[in-house]
Write a structure and sequence with these properties.
The structure is a homodimer.
Chain A: E1 4-14, H1 22-28, E2 33-38, H2 42-45, H3 48-58, E3 62-66, H4 75-88, E4 92-97, H5 99-111, H6 119-123, E5 132-137, E6 149-154, E7 159-164, E8 172-175, H7 185-205, H8 211-233, H9 238-251, H10 266-278, H11 282-297, H12 302-313, H13 318-332, H14 345-361, H15 370-378
Parallel strand pairs in A: 1-8, 2-3, 2-4, 4-5, 5-8
Antiparallel strand pairs in A: 6-7
Helix pairs in contact in A: 1-3, 4-5, 7-8, 7-9, 7-11, 8-9, 10-11, 10-14, 11-13, 11-15, 12-13, 14-15
InterPro entries (chains A, B): ADH_Fe/GldA, ADH_Fe_C, BDH-like
GO molecular function (chains A, B): alcohol dehydrogenase (NAD+) activity
Keywords (chains A, B): Oxidoreductase
Amino acid sequence: MYPFSFQNPTRIEFGLDKEKEMGKYMHEYGAKKALIIYGSERVKQSGLFEDVAKSLREQGIEYIECGGVKSNPTISKVREAVAMAKAFGADSVLSIGGGSCLDSAKAIAAGACYDGDTWDFFKGTPVQKALMIFDVITLAATGSEMNWGSVITNEETQQKYSIHSNHLFPKVSVINPKLQATVSRDYLVYSAADIIAHSIEAYFTAEYRPEIIDFLVESNIKTVIRTTEILLNNPQDLNARGEFAWAATLALNGLTHLGISPYGFPNHMIEHSMSAISDVPHGAGLSVIMPAWMQWYQSQRPAQFKRFAKEIFGLDKAEDGIFALKAWFDKIDTPTRLEQLGIDNKTLAEIVENAAQTAIRAKVEKTYTKEAIEAIFALAK
Amino acid sequence: MYPFSFQNPTRIEFGLDKEKEMGKYMHEYGAKKALIIYGSERVKQSGLFEDVAKSLREQGIEYIECGGVKSNPTISKVREAVAMAKAFGADSVLSIGGGSCLDSAKAIAAGACYDGDTWDFFKGTPVQKALMIFDVITLAATGSEMNWGSVITNEETQQKYSIHSNHLFPKVSVINPKLQATVSRDYLVYSAADIIAHSIEAYFTAEYRPEIIDFLVESNIKTVIRTTEILLNNPQDLNARGEFAWAATLALNGLTHLGISPYGFPNHMIEHSMSAISDVPHGAGLSVIMPAWMQWYQSQRPAQFKRFAKEIFGLDKAEDGIFALKAWFDKIDTPTRLEQLGIDNKTLAEIVENAAQTAIRAKVEKTYTKEAIEAIFALAK
């Protein structure tokens, strides 16, 4: 096994009505002045915002609010909220929403403790300090609720970049499966694709992997497939909703990446260019790129692709595993072809150019040349 | 899924030579005066103690030492070390050894911050405070390196009890597979039994279990079986050693108990009476009690026992899974019958009495009556 350091200090509060305890949790950590960040006004209409805000007031925690975070969250919204947090003297950021909202909260938390522009972090400046981060996660997908990462899009430069820092672990994340039961059918299947993408990146790209880590990845994928099918029939099945959410958390909280050899995130790298340029939902971009990338890449890890086919779908041939995953995406109705995303050849050329630039930044430009990225996209037509 | 709170702040440093960084890790947490606790003099003869101690001196960390911790660690040794820690003004306890040593370190850390007798905690006084805990774990089994528990034996009262507290998570645990490669053949197989025991308790006793949790438990058991067989042939296989160690950690760091309905630790409860009275190795006691308990208990969870047979051994019948586990214990040569432990009828009667008392303390006396415990032991003859 390869050496590793692992520490994940985030406290998870999982269960019905836990969001109503948020004020209590924040009080335990000494929070007194919070910026609440959220996305759509639905969190107000549903009463969720008020349930959480009330729990803050009961603990004497003051707050201001900033709404309107969109999926593929932008640095401009982050900058707006950073200015608000600084003016207010916030000691904490509370996200009520999905992964986009929480990723924004993390960037805001770092930006509020920094004199320069928050985008500097995404260009390489290390995060030295951050406000305390809390969240009620309303959509399971990104795993942001139990990790140290944040992905933000700079809409001016069309760069979708990530930051990572120990300062960005949430203090407390609330996962209430019932709050996730109102997610639309589309976002359920996009989320399924996202969780599977988080699972397969290192699974296929790391040359050495202890089997105990493979088991964990396969557990997450099998759980997502099983529970997605249950939820498409019955969105209110809270056990399935809970397992789906927990698979999302486990897929990217560090545990699936321990003791393995170096690995990449090529599907995410390429998809980030897709959603930066054409603003497609991240999960929809991933379900298009994944089967194509797998076909393109499989010859490099034949044994692992064979294992995937067997463990996930009970099939003997590596290629059949890839087809089965694509067929499953088709079945649950998340896109598998570029044209379903409305990406034409002109846009595609921009995406390829953008991804090739990102590959240079990620130091994988020898593998992910412009030609290679074009070849992968050709398999997604 | 059932509601849960989960937080595990322990930092794991996994890999070769990580023990030589212990001083650096402790310095990061502000440690200045440590009590080093260890068991056998072998940690000195091997040079391990000096490697670790040198790293402390390099960081200006003063230390005193207390050796001689035995397996089934005793409150008398803990009391001795608590007095030393208090006199020295220690701010931290560093364990260099296996689970017994680390469990002692946890009790010492709590006792050094308490005016009364350390055994009070085991009688129910909550731990309010503890010195910082660090460890180099030289035997994988108890999972103590990433959890909040400690099990100590009061040799006067013949009580083997546990405490749990958020204050007892180690700050940093070093897992170096190479340090574990010198574990004797006997302790390897006892450890295998211990990890499997940690895995099956909630697996069989919780009525409701999300499948994602079952997958994780089964991953740990399958990993232990596979890697034990590798290690019996080649104790120096460091990949297998590492996976074995990581399975031990994952089996009892909280992750396998999330979202499930209430559960018990009956095998541990009964075994603790065995090792409290007759001082058998904990894992050896467990490999005797487990197959017997499983036979006695299986009718209460037929579906789960069927699942176990299928997932772990590829067998169709529930009972065959139990026989397969017992046969595997026989194959690796860890005891499966009381007589192999040298426990005669007189001692057994004392053990039954002790376990029945513990059952009252654990509020499971309706299920684990004296007659029930006798019936379980009858299956282990």
